[in-house]
Amino acid sequence: MRDRYTITERLDHGGMAEVFRGVAESMEGFKKNVAIKRVLPNLTKNQKFVAMFLDEARLSLFLQHANIVQVFDISRTPDNAYFLVMEYVDGCNLKSLIERQKQKGRRLEIAHSIYLMIECCKALHYAHSLEHPETNEPLGIVHRDISPPNILLSKNGEVKLVDFGLAKANSQIESTDPGVVKGKFSYLSPEAASGIEVDHRADVFAVGILLYELFTGRRLFYGETDYQTVELVRQARVPSMAARTTRSSSPAPRRWSARRWRATRRTDISTPPTWATRCRSSCSLAG
Question: Where are the alpha helices (DSSP H) in the chain?
Answer without folding.
Answer: 47-62, 94-103, 110-129, 190-193, 201-216, 226-235, 241-247, 258-267, 275-286
